[in-house]
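Incident review: delayed structure delivery

Summary: a single-chain prediction request sat in the queue longer than the usual turnaround. Root cause was a stuck worker, restarted by the on-call engineer. No data loss occurred. The affected request and its eventual output are reproduced below so the record is complete for anyone auditing the incident later.

Affected input:
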Amino acid sequence: MMKCSYCDSENNSMEKACSVCGAPLHTKRPQLKEYVSLQDSALSFQELQRFHTYDLLILLRLVREERSKSYNLMRTVQKAPEGAEIDKSVIEFGESEYRLYTARMKLIEGLLVDRMGYKPKRVDDKLLAALKHRMDSK
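Output delivered after worker restart:
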């Protein structure tokens, strides 16, 4: 026998879906990770989909910070004084990093819209603390 992770009903473990609510029986629900790093943002859509919403918010904050750094670096290089020798590869690297983090940010925001119905303007400690409090009191 197998318990449904959504409605807690007993089901035959050979079944694919819960006989009561229809939820998939062999799909793992997102669990909180011990640690989320910027490198996680390079994971595929399917892998990020398995992240807990709280972890996605932390990852979004990290990606937005890195995107801002890339943008500021790009702007600094663009505003360099006339005649300054700046290697073209440095400029291209800054632009590609900015585009990369923009795409990663939009992917994570899209996942959060699917889960929460909106993308947060800011992911600050207050938002994370409120969510953590709700999760702890469930």
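Verification: The mean pLDDT is 90.
Action items: add queue-age alerting; document worker restart procedure.
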